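Subject: Sanity check before I submit

Could someone independently write out the structure tokens for this chain? I want to compare against mine line by line before I put it in a report. The sequence has 663 residues.
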Amino acid sequence: MNMPKFNMNWIYIIAIITLVALYMTSGNDNVARVQTDANYSDFKKFVSQGYAESIVVNKHQNVLRMYVKPEHVRDVFNKGVDQTGKNPYLNVEIGSVDQVEQFVEQARADSTFTGKFSYDNKRENDFFGSLLMNVLFFGGIILVWIFIMRRMGGGSGGMGGLGGMFNVGKSKAALYEKGGDLGITFKDVAGQAGAKQEMQEIVDFLKNPQKYTDLGGKIPKGALLVGPPGTGKTLLAKAVAGEAGVPFFSMSGSDFVEMFVGVGASRVRDLFEKAKQKAPCIIFIDEIDAVGRARSKNPAMGGNDERENTLNALLTEMDGFGTNSGIITLAATNRADMLDSALMRAGRFDRQIHVDLPDLNERKEVFNVHLKPLKLDPDLDIDFLARQTPGFSGADIANVCNEAALIAARFNREKVGKQDFLDAVDRIIGGLEKKTKVMTEQEKRSIAIHEAGHATISWFTEFANPLVKVSIVPRGQALGAAWYLPEERVLQTKEAMLDEMCSLLGGRAAEELFVGQISTGAMNDLERTTKQAYGMIAYAGMGDKLPNVCYYNNQEYSFQRPYSETTAKIMDDEVLKMINEQYERAKQILTDHKEGHAQLAQLLIEREVIFAEDVEKIFGKRPWTSRAEELLEAQMRADAERMAEERAKELAAQDSEEVKGEG
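---
Independent answer below. Compare away.
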């Protein structure tokens, strides 16, 4: 039977409804009768006119009630019986009970009152009845309040319903008594050799502190993990806890901040108090920039800033008059430039460990980790996958592997192959393929000319990234795209950045030259070009009129620019000049190779997707060979040799079987 599950909320709701109903219906007389206050003169007048049906006197309260005859209800209350209900009465204050008795006796003698005259002595019962109803009503309000506070406190116990209220200032950190319970070690962290080495030392500090203290050294108090999102900062912290096997407190920076004033600082103190009891242990604060933002950069001017109070408490606990021996604080953020300098100094976070995006070899290690649960094609080359994912973080690579498995399952394949991974990379970079988008022939031709312009410019510029493929299949917000295999350079030269800018402008230049009109299709290219040009002029000091000057300012809430209006005008002129020069250069390259560009655009219209081999057939071998292309060619040669060897083995096996058959 689909019976509803028992829930205490139903008990609360029923109790509240009952209390409200009892309070509203207390005193049946008030429901059945209409009560109106009147003075003593009106009372005497109504009795003399014969309107009174009965009179009840309360000696203790010096009041009386005169019940009105039904036929005279309208004369007294100006309402009908259907509106006043049964037995409506007047409430009259009296000065003396004897005076009322004399008046009633006189009225009986005059035959103006023939009803019942009685006394009411229920003072104690009325008092206790009203007191009980008030207590029940306000008790119901208190129960509702306790219920709400329990909800706010997460249903914490220990003090019944008041537990949530009294635990508001308590730490919300998740405690793992043994870090090994997380089931994560350094074996689960691929790449990041430098970061793992520094984190391994922290594990050694916790396991064997005497080794370091015997030489006079001190155990570091904290380490800050800095790096882009998805690079494995939180995973490294969990691995430290798993390797050290000590208690591990984990919480987010946002858990300190609440709507109540003083709660954040209270939670910081409670967290470190609990950690002292569990020492040696690790405290891990994820996204510490939520509370560690520099105090001078906070836009709140005046008043009480809860985040600043929380930061002050954190600074005091990490390195104040008290000692936190045996407690190592780990924190992670991808916005280290936002943190307060007092938090970053030695003695609080003694080490800053940079967890960067993985390079080629590290991406291969990450792929090896995430490919373990997949059923892979034996011919899949992991080196090729690592080269196809430059700039990908560990989280991105995990997403690629998952998407590839989903794509293979969608097409009912038994193994996940190379094409599935390529489709997954396209899906993540470019977005979902829009097969239902309808384009006219003119739009398709314009997009093909635009993308062919990018491919042509990148082919004939020395430092442009090597082309992988060009597509005019709509994906996400893009109507077409060109895929490149960028070299992972540590330093970017001005010439390389100008070649990239020229390649970005190739699409707009091709539209102007070969379509005769420009479109909004180059909006993203122009945005990237403009940002890159301003970065080169204002930050990298690559301008002709502003050489060797950097105007970078990391003050988030700075109210003025670190340069004058005259300098801003020079920047604008320099940027415009740089972009126009590269645009004219792109038009010149396209004019010199317009026949090849036309063939490339026509091939795109026919096939929608073309690869670097197709471009090479049209333009010939690229004049400049980059390191990435050398690796790609070496891999292609290795693949060809491996296929030839496998073919030779198959032929040899067939020959041996034929010989056996003849024998």
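---
OP: Matches mine. For the report I'm noting this point. The first helix runs from residue 8 to 25.
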